[in-house]
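Why should sequence recovery work at all? Because a backbone constrains its sequence more than one might expect. Tight turns favour small or flexible residues, buried strands favour hydrophobic ones, and helices have their own preferences. The token representation captures these environments compactly. In the example below, the structure is given first.
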């Protein structure tokens, strides 16, 4: 029994060391990729291509998801608030929920599923095809060439998509509130306007910047570490999506706590 206990402890210790090493590698890659924005050479064309892939390529799915999130939330609130005679608060609850929490997180998850998985599979294919090693052979920094443009593209486009998605969600909520909840459109938009304070807007816009960096960083880290052929590529793509989702949810809680403490003190 004692030998089994020692063996389990050794395995747990080894797993913990591996986890720490992966976190260290991820942190260094993310830091190197972000600092690459300020160092020459600048791969502007690659950055623009990544912005187009992350932004324009995700536009339609963000619109659809955001529209139905706003409609579903408004529909549920209308059903719950009507018996209480509180329908006039539908717009306020919908808008503050969308702007501060649901919008940034939902769109980040959509972004993870489309952009994060794409980045991981693309870089994974390059790693398996030894294209990353070829860049090193020609004296090109693979992090500067491959990681920095993708981090920059996600950093720029996820906040833009979030703002657009929030607006679409509010219009979806308005449609349901007026057509199903029989609420006055003027009352709905007045409630939305009351919610558009600095604290709420800043909270809703600050989160996507952090989410974009984390999603791109995880996808690049997992993609560049891909090995094991087609099965390894499948595993890497799945890991990139799963890890990104977990990190986004955890980061959302931490950021919400920080923002409530900081903005509440202003």
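From this structural description, the recovered sequence reads:
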């Amino acid at each position: 029994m004692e030998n089994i206990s020692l063996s389990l402890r050794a395995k747990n210790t080894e797993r913990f060391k591996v986890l720490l090493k992966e976190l260290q590698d991820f942190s260094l890659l993310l830091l190197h990729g972000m600092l690459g924005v300020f160092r020459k050479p600048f791969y502007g064309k690659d950055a623009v291509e990544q912005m187009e892939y992350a932004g324009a390529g995700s536009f339609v799915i963000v619109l659809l998801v955001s529209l139905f999130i706003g409609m579903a939330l408004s529909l549920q609130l209308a059903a719950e608030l009507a018996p209480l005679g509180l329908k006039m608060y539908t717009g306020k609850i919908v808008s503050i929920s969308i702007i501060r929490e649901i919008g940034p997180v939902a769109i980040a998850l959509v972004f993870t599923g489309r952009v994060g998985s794409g980045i991981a599979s693309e870089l994974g294919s390059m790693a398996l095809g030894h294209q990353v090693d070829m860049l090193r052979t020609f004296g090109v920094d693979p992090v500067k060439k491959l990681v920095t443009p993708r981090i920059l593209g996600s950093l720029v486009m996820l906040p833009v998509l979030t703002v657009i998605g929030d607006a679409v969600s509010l219009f979806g909520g308005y449609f349901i509130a007026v057509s199903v909840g029989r609420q006055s459109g003027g009352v709905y938009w007045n409630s939305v306007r009351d919610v558009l304070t600095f604290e709420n807007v800043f909270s809703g816009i600050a989160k996507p910047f952090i989410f974009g960096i984390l999603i791109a960083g995880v996808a690049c880290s997992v993609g560049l570490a891909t090995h094991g052929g087609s099965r390894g590529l499948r595993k890497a793509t799945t890991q990139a999506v799963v890890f990104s989702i977990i990190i986004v949810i955890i980061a959302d809680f931490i950021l919400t706590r920080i923002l409530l403490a900081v903005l509440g003190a202003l």
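A few observations help interpret the result. The chain has one domain: 42-265.
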